[in-house]
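Me: I keep going back and forth on a fold encoding question. No explanation is needed for now; the record alone will do.

Assistant:
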Amino acid sequence: MTFWTIPRRCFATLALTIPALAGAFPTGTIEWVVPYAAGGGSDVVARVIASEMTKTLGQPIVINNKPGAGTNIGAAYAAKAKADGHVVLTADTATLAANQFLYSEPGYNAEQDFVPVGLIARFPMILVVNPQVPAKDLKEFLAWAKAQPNPVAFGTPGAGSPHHLATELFSDSTGLKLLHAPYKGAAPAVQDVIAGQVPFMFVDTAVGGAHIRAGKLKAIGIASPSRVQGFDTIPTLNEQGLKGFEAYAWQGMVAPARTPAAAVEKLNKALVAAINSDAARTRFQALGLEAIPGSPGEMGAYANGEREKWGKVIKAKGIKLD
């Protein structure tokens, strides 16, 4: 029997089958690539959200930690994965906004190799100092720093990190001459600020919150447009005169380029529902995270803005990691 002699009832069957197959996603386990080690903030967020998304999608989501090279290893892996919606990636400030300027060959193209699924959360940055620094607000901190005979040192989790870029932007915005002291991770940097080895740093709410509440770090100001829930007593840098200054470590979800739009839509709906769940809200509040659910288009626009903003800082400062 040739194509032209197929009975009409077969066409009817095909017409019903094709949409059914198109709407079947997901058909199996979804792999969520997290480009950081297990146990860190990004990993914790992914596991909370994955647990909630599984309830909506009806398929398990397995976290695959692929840390290294400032997220490049995990991002390059995900960029080459099959584009059917069954592989997604935690993509953040480094992955989508900074690495293409920091590395000659990051191993992927941030603007071409991924399609946005949706934003998840952002970690507001807080300017903190050792408690012995004689300043309780931005005005006093700037006066103290400018009175020092040498550039004031600041700690970061590493060169090119969101914390580093935030401080370079702060330097440009205030005219301060500063000395970068990069560490291998946020924890050792914070410990040295507490110990007085370096006087200050920008720390995200997830890492610095407990130390601020315990009085081990003194908060000068938060780099967000308005005060943050859970940190309401910390004034913004904006309200202290540093107009328009914002700095976050943020993250969202992307999928490999050419992932079907229907799959992206289903992933986005499940992601937004997960972010708005009671479990995620509770966990985010404990970590000091700001939930920022939205559409793929909104994530794309946000990432483009961040890429332009931090690309200018990196180029102006000549920061390179290879």
